[in-house]
Amino acid sequence: MKHCLAALLSGTLFGFGLSLSQMTDPNKVLSFLDVAGRWDPSLAFVMMGALAVSVITFRFILKRTRPIWAEEFHVARKKSVDKPLLFGAMIFGIGWGMSGYCPGPAVAGLGLGNPEAFIMVASIYLGFIAQGIWARKRFKKSVPVDA
How far apart are CA 39 and CA 45, in angstroms? Predict the structure, then answer.
């Protein structure tokens, strides 16, 4: 129950912040990406705020032996940049630029009843499924079969 309460509180805070900063509006995000036209720097301020909070709080939080409501911390251990990361980032960026929706604001847009958000979230899940199928096929090819 503690996990659900933490997810509810953090999700509500995140959604409120996205709405307050107008980041649930794809046009606002697309204006940020339009650096050669009518550029709107507000997304940069949202990102800088999130980064500042994370940089400051992670130093204190990760000094703990374990999280408050979990057995262990779940942080990325991979520190290298590889082809799947670069290719995935490129595909993510193309989708973001075409739609104006990042996954978080797309989910928040569901609560606002935006039809585009429903299409975007469904498409995100189709991408998850497609990548899972691709990864399983790739893994099967790399594992030798015993005779």
Answer: 13
Tokens read off for 129: 């499924």
Give the model confidence (pLDDT) of 2-12 as tens digits: 888 988 998 88
Q: Is the dihedral of CA 88, 101, 48, 69 positive or negative?
A: negative
- Inter-residue contact 67 to 73 (CB < 8 Å): yes
Which residue, 51, 55, 73, 56, is CA-closest to 64? 73
Helix or strand (DSSP H, E) at 123: helix 115-142
DSSP single-letter state for residue 60:
H
Q: Where does the pLDDT of residue 147 fall: very low under 50, low under 70, confident under 90, or very high at 90 and above? A: very low
- pTM for this entry: 0.69
Round to whole Å and give the CA distance between 53 and 104.
18
Q: In whole angstroms, give the CA distance from residue 91 to residue 57.
A: 31
Ordered alpha helix ranges (H), 1-144: 2-20, 26-33, 42-61, 83-99, 103-111, 115-142
> 60-109, pLDDT tens digit by residue?
998 899 888 888 888 888 889 999 889 999 999 898 888 888 888 888 88
